[in-house]
Amino acid sequence: MTNKPIKCIIVDDEPAAQAVMKHFIGMVDFVEIKAICFNANEAKIALKTHPDTNLIFLDINMPGESGLNFYKQLDNPPELILTTAYPQYAVEAFEINATDYLLKPIAFERFMSALDKVSDKIATPETKLAQHIIIKSNKVIHQVNLEELQMVEAFGDYIKIHTSEKIIVSNNTLTNFLNQLPDYFLRCHKSFVVNKNLINLVEGNTISINHLKIPIGQTYKTKFIERLQPS
Prior knowledge:
Elements: E1 6-11, H1 15-26, E2 31-37, H2 40-49, E3 55-58, H3 67-72, E4 79-84, H4 90-95, E5 100-103, H5 108-122, H6 125-129, E6 132-137, E7 140-145, E8 149-155, E9 158-163, E10 167-170, H7 174-178, E11 185-189, E12 192-195, E13 201-203, E14 206-209, E15 212-215, H8 218-228
Parallel strand pairs: 1-2, 1-3, 3-4, 4-5
Antiparallel strand pairs: 6-7, 8-9, 8-12, 9-10, 11-12, 13-14, 14-15
């Protein structure tokens, strides 16, 4: 089970502002751009073409119809993040229930904070119960469901995070990463951490999680076996 993906359109008449949003979104693996629009008319067409859109990044001051007026006319509107150089529209943003209000120039940290709010609002009851962790890998940020995180492997100055769908390489230490995980993640070896809930079989000094075979180190074996037992 993965978190509900964000499918967005960008509405801004400035190519430079569009480029910033495209760059930020390109660094996040759970957001998809459905369309880029220069004005409200193009945005209306984009929403009809892509009815699964669940987020609009919307500029306010654009040629023709303003962003605020455009959004107020929508039936069942997607979530809204306003992007503007003008702070005086904050009250109107609140009145139309915008999820966030980003002032240009937009910092990446503020962009991510706004995305977190959108993720919380569009999450289904099932995904709200699931826990997620944010993992940085090169210039990409991954949002990983902990229920799908199978094991973590030390890899020199990096770690390899194995999920049911992919392998993510991140600049981190195994000990530091383990400290961020719930207690059902167990260290079984100096170089490996496993998800206790996904273990299929423990045979001798080997753990099986689907197709993965993970060794159990002698130093860790006694404590690992103890923690496998039902509490």
